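Extended Data, panel c. Modelled sequence:
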Amino acid sequence: MGATPFRVAVLISGAGTNLQALLDQLHSPGGAIEIVGIAASRADAAGLRRAQAAGVESAVFAIAEHPDRADRDRALGDWLDSLGVELVVLAGFMELLSPEFVARFAGRIVNVHPSLLPAFPGLRAIEQAVEQGVKVTGVTVHFVDEGVDSGAIVLQEALDLSYPARIAEIEERVHGVEHRLLPRAVRLIAAGRVRPDPANPHAVLVDDGD
């Protein structure tokens, strides 16, 4: 018998293009990595159709259907635990998670963000970069902590900017990087090649060799 697959869940809010990249590049039932659950914050998230096409269990956890965010996050966490999830991947999940949820899955949540953190955290990261006239931006995959895009960085890739800048063109380039960088980060974590840096509580050590 082979090794037990590393069990991943993906949280989405919209179209799910990063989800599709994860499905295409990583998902292998019975293989090294298996996406066992896809949760959406909205019932109309187009990414749910990608889950259905891939035959992956999915569910909707809309805040409007719960008394408050904490209650929604408890229900979401219970569902993830029922699936035996080892890593939670935020792939275009456009809502804050409660501190209780982050603590429950501490060290097991990663997010992809369209900037070179710590620059331009939060919303409108690409627009912020252009408004500041920066010459270099990029993509970051990082662990999620209780702050806003402040967790330890796993991988980053830079993109040069030129002006006048077109937001739509930059977004397209950023998405291309995200679709490569996020699956690579998940693959490294699943292989045990990302570990805390004993010398720096804000950093992780990454063995990104072949």
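The beta strands are 6-12, 33-40, 58-60, 87-90, 109-113, 136-143, 153-160, 194-197, 200-206. This feature is highlighted in the accompanying rendering.
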